[in-house]
Structure formats: C-alpha cells, structure tokens
Design a protein that fits this description.
Strand order of the largest sheet: 1-2-3-4-6-5
Order of helices and strands: HEEEEHHEEHHEEEHEHEH
Structural class: alpha+beta
Strand content: 15-25%
Distance between the termini: 72 Å
CATH topology of the largest domain: Trna Endonuclease, Chain: A, domain 1
CATH class of the largest domain: Alpha Beta
Largest sheet: 6 strands, antiparallel
Oligomer: single chain
Length: about 260
C-alpha cells in the first residue's frame, strides 16, 4: 500500500493532524498530537520488516516510565499487572522493552489506534492514584519477603491467636522459628505507622520481653514527624524505603535468620 494511502488511513481513524515523516528506507516517523506527561510526543515508528509493516515505540515508552519509577518495580506488583493486561488487550508485543504491533490485513488505522491506546495506558502507570500506589507498595513488600524468607518461616497478616483471636492487632509479616520472632511492618502512610505503633505497644504489653520489629517505609520523608517519632520509640529497626534499601534489608534478614532455634 502506498504511503500516502497509509497516512490517509491513519488520519481517517485517529485525527487529521497525523503525518508521516520519512526516516530511511521503508521507515517513517508517525507524528501525532499525543504527549507523555513531560510534554514529549509519543514516539511511534512505522517500518517494514520482511513482508510485514509494523509500528514500534523503539523502547521510548518504558524509558519515560523509568524517569520516575525504578525499572525493577515495573516488573512486579500492580504496575506489572496493568502493563501486561494492556499488552494483551491491544495485541502489542513487548520485545525486550520495545513495544511493537504487526499491522494485520492492511488495517493500518486500527493498528495505530490500538498502539496509541496501549502507549497511553502504559504511560498512565506513572499517574496511579494514591490508593493504587499504596497497593503497589504492599505488593512489592510482600513479593520481596516471599523472595527473602522461606514459606515455612513467614506468616503474613499474623496476629496473636491467644491474646487476640479476632485479629484486631495484626502484623504485616512475622518471621518465626527464631529465639525471638521478628515482626515486620509495611508503612506507606501515617495511618499505617500509627497502627503499627499500637500493635507493637500491645505486643509488648502481652509479652515478657522486648518485641523484635522492622518498619519498612514506602517513603519515610512523607510521614508526619510526630507520628514517626512515636513509632521510632518502639520499633527496633527502620528502613526509609523499600526500593532503595533492598540489599540492606536482605542482609539484615539474613543475619536475623541465622539466629534460628
């Protein structure tokens, strides 16, 4: 199909401002009005490979996401689920970070429409609402501990079965089979820090010895100073964020686990 016909199909399906700019043999940049949050336009290339025409972002979409999000965090938790679901929904292929879609049956307009939709939804991962960001952090927290502590030694959402059978005072993760069990809290906001403080105070009240504890923050700088001060008085060890302290947390857990019964 002639390039001017393809351009016409793009305009008819999307909008009249779309243009194709030659960038080599059988390769064209697709100029659209669609933007990332930093003001850059979506990067879309139309090119021929063997007998097929395809659209590619040349890895630009994920590159923009990594400006604000650690690359490893895009491969797990809620963010990864959103990305994978989007890729499946719009029949886009992730080729080692490059998004691409082969144009089927000369349906150029439909393919570009799907590709733009996919890029837009994937880029929206950086705009997750506060609740979605919180769920991502909690997913990341759980995944990290699943990788760091064997299943038979950890218990998520633990509560004292004797003193608290209804589970009013829960610990995000308890590491067992230690001379003194370790209680780990995920702390994305002020409310969770207050709750963790109350739980630790209650556990201390029920027990006959100090409660071993770790607080892992999403971002400690976001926590109210007074809330943080009260928590610091009772928590044994704190890490200011999960994403930037994974090695330190792993080392701390490894040392703690070596003191098993």
């Amino acid at each position: 199909m002639a390039i001017d016909v393809i351009e016409h199909e793009f305009r008819k399906k999307i909008c009249d401002t779309i243009r194709l700019m030659p960038e080599g043999l059988d390769c064209y940049r697709v100029l659209t009005p669609f933007l990332f949050d930093d003001g850059d336009h979506f990067s879309i290339i139309l090119r021929r490979e063997a007998k097929d025409w395809l659209l590619s972002d040349e890895g630009n979409t994920f590159m923009h996401l990594t400006y604000d999000i650690d690359e490893n965090d895009l491969r797990k938790g809620t963010r990864n689920k959103i990305i994978e679901n989007t890729i499946d929904q719009f029949s886009v292929h992730n080729n080692d970070g490059e998004l691409r879609i082969i144009i089927p049956d000369a349906k150029y307009g439909d393919a570009l429409y799907s590709f733009i939709q996919a890029i837009g939804r994937i880029s929206d991962v950086s705009f997750l609402s506060r609740e979605r960001v919180r769920s991502t952090f909690l997913d990341d927290f759980q995944q990290f501990l699943e990788n760091s502590v064997s299943e038979e030694r950890r218990e998520f959402e633990w509560h004292d079965p004797v003193n608290d059978p209804e589970g009013k005072y829960t610990v995000d993760c308890r590491v067992n089979h230690l001379s003194n069990p370790l209680h780990i809290f995920a702390l994305p906001n002020d409310d969770r820090v207050r709750d963790a403080t109350i739980v630790l105070l209650q556990l201390e009240k029920w027990g006959s010895r100090a409660v071993r504890s770790i607080g892992i923050f999403e971002n400690q700088e976001d926590i109210n100073r007074k809330v943080l001060a009260r928590f610091s008085d009772i928590c044994e060890k704190q890490f200011s964020s999960l994403s930037s302290n994974q090695t330190r947390i792993s080392n701390y857990l490894e040392e703690a686990l070596s003191g098993q019964d």
